[in-house]
Fold this protein.
Amino acid sequence: MPLEPYPRGAVWWARGRVEYNGAPITEYYRCSTGASEESGAKDWCRNEELRVTCIHLLGEDPEEKLITFADAVLQYDAKPKEAAYLVPITKKIGSMPIRDISPKLVRELGPDLYPDCSTDTWTRQVVSPVRAVINNINDSESGIAFRVRGYTPKEKVAQDNKRKSTGRKKYPPGSWEWLLKFRQKAPPRLGALALLMFISGARISQAVAMHPHKHINKAKGMICIPGAKGHGDRWLRVPDVVMAELTALPEIYPRDWPRKPENLRMFGYADRGGPRKLWNKACDDAGIERIPFHPAGRHGFGQEMNVRQRVDEKAAGAFGGWSDLNLMRSTYTHAEDTEIKVNQALNRGLLEAERKTGLKLRKEP
């Protein structure tokens, strides 16, 4: 099949093979064209066919071959969101040879492309995609990893001051108290979703992907959290009360999905954004803070296990799907009741010291 463009998210991709005299002369393509419109994608397909045909007929001097960033993007299988991030980057440095792209240049692309955004945005939408694209090439070419130093705390503060914002709002982690109040006003299916995320550390994308037959083993009292971010599926034994609630949910298909058995979803949502409107309404009706999915679920689980209940961190990490315990400690645990805990500790220390020394901090008049 000759090269043809097709839409994928915000970017047009190409699939097929380059042919000469009706016979394929390349392997099968399935890659991003970097174009945001069909016309641009068609131009890319024509140019690629011309380029490859010339190489096929005339040959190519390996010493003269320079892989550009645009070439590297075409060889990288980007996810839709990542592909959208690569479009403005490719417009900026697409013609530049990979060998000429330095870590300093990549870091400077952040403020250049997104002057009013945070350093976190620069990392997510510029540094990470560029690094992934170049390392995908390096795996087959030099094998040397391309590394980019992150933005420093000083740079973050300077950018936050410039745009008069400290970034995303920080939310407290979920708790049993918050969850119980939430479930009083949430529809049963939404309440079950919130419960599942809190007791398992599941992300919202994993929870909404669960199938009522494939991801539940009622006989063993176990549920399966679908794999994500490089990790496989996790089968977990859960409390009987949780299993009873999940298995009692009526079978349902996401709205407008074909009524096929494989399309059943435990909570009935097509994607991670499906529950948001009802979620916020339940928070408002319960008179509690609007804590988003991730802080309420995965952060709530991490906080409950590591700080409130002080479960062995290796057990909590394995159950919640963290291979990096440092990440769990640094990101998914939070300071709570700081002033109360510190003052109580100071008072305990003072009383112990006074008992041992016979001296008093406060001298009697």
The chain has two domains: 4-163, 176-331. The longest strand covers residues 29-35. The chain has 15 helices and eight strands.
